[in-house]
Amino acid sequence: MAYYIGLMSGTSIDGIDCVLADFSENRKPEYLAGVALDWSPEDRRMFGSLTSPGNDEIHRAGIASCRYAEKAAEAIHTLLEKNGLAPDDIVAVASHGQTIRHEPENGFTVQIGNHALLAALSGIDVVADFRSADIALGGQGAPLVPAFHQEILSSENSNRFIINIGGISNVTALIPGRKTSGYDLGPGNTLSDLLAEKLFNIPCDRDGILASEGTVNENALRCFLQNPYFSARPPKSTGRELFNEGFLLKFPGFETLSPRDQMATVCELTARSIAEGLDFLEAKGDIYICGGGCHNSYLMKRISALARTHGHGRVATVQELGIDPDFLEGFAFAWLGYCFMKRIPVNMTCITGSRRPVIMGCLYPHSR
C-alpha cells in the first residue's frame, strides 16, 4: 500500500478536510476515508481578516499559520486513529494550506500554514505550496484539481462537467477528444456565508432556506454580473480579493434590501455565474457537483433549472460517480502530494495557462 493524506481548507473557511488515499502502483487511485474538523468562529475571523489589507499582518499571519498546523495535525491524528494506522504508515501529507491572497496577475499566491510545525506535530513528511510553481510558469495557479478529475472521473462516451462549489466555484471540463480544461467560475458560498453571518449570526444558509424565502433583486443581480471577471475568457481564477463585502456594495443600496432578499440575490448570482460560465466551453453535457454547495438544495435546484435553459443534461453530485462530494478536493491534493513525491510533472497548460508541465509542491521532511 502507498498511503497518502490530503488536507484541504478552502476559501469558505468552514473547516479542514483530511483524506486518506491509496496510490499503489498499477491500480486506480483509491479513496479510503475522510474526516472533517470545523474551524471555530474565532479561527474563521482570524483567517478571513487576512484576506484583505490590515494592521500587523505579518504577526497575525504567523499566528494563523501555527493555528492551521495545530488543527491539521489534530485532523491527521483523528484520521489515523479511526483507521488503525500510525504516522509511519503514511508516505506523505499533502497540505493545501489556507489561502489568504491570490494575485496571479502580480505573480504570487499565498497559502499560509506552518508546514514545518505540521511535519513535527504529525510525524509525517509534508508537501505544501502547490500553486507557486504554476504561477512561476505564467499560470493562474488555480484551479489545480482538474488534472485529478481527468484521472478518475472522465468518460469515453459523454461530456462531464465537474463543478466544485466551495467559497469559490470552479469547473473541470471532461470532454472526450479534448484536452482537460477548467477555471474559476465566480463566487460559490463565500458571499452567502458572509451575509448569513452578518445578517443572521449563523455560519451559512443551510439548505438555502433563507434564500428561498427571499426575492431576487434583478437590478442588483445585473449590476453584479457586469463585473469584468464574468466576461473574461479562461484561463482565469479568483478569490475573496474580488468577491467580498465591497463587491456587494458596488450596487448602491444593496444593504438596504431585506436580509432574505440579499440572500436570494447572492444565491442567484452563484447559480447564474455557474450556468453562464459554462458557455465558454462551447459544449454541453452532464453536470456533477461537489463541495459544500452541493448540500444546498435550493442552490442545486436553481443550477439545475438554469443549466437546462443552457442546453445541459442532468445535474447531480459526484456521489453518483462513486466519490464522496465532501472529500473530492482533499483526495485531489493527496494525489498532488503523490505526484510530487514521485517527481511527476502535472500538465496544467490548458487549465491555468502555464507554459509547460511542472512538478508542484515543496517538501517539509519530518526529522525521524
Description:
This protein has 368 residues and is α/β, with parallel strands linked by helices. The protein has two domains: 3-141 and 329-364, Nucleotidyltransferase, domain 5, CATH 3.30.420; 146-321, Nucleotidyltransferase, domain 5, CATH 3.30.420.40. Helices cover 36% and strands 21% of the residues. The protein is built from 13 helices and twelve strands. The strands form two sheets. Strands 1, 2, 3, 4, 5, 6 and 12 form a seven-stranded mixed sheet that branches. Strands 9-8-7-10-11 form a five-stranded mixed sheet, sandwiched between helices. A hairpin with a 2-residue loop joins strand 7 and strand 8 (168-174). The longest helix is centred in the first third of the chain and has 26 residues, at 57-82. It is globular.
Give a quick summary of the entry.
The protein is α/β, with parallel strands linked by helices and 368 residues long. Helices cover 36% and strands 21% of the residues.
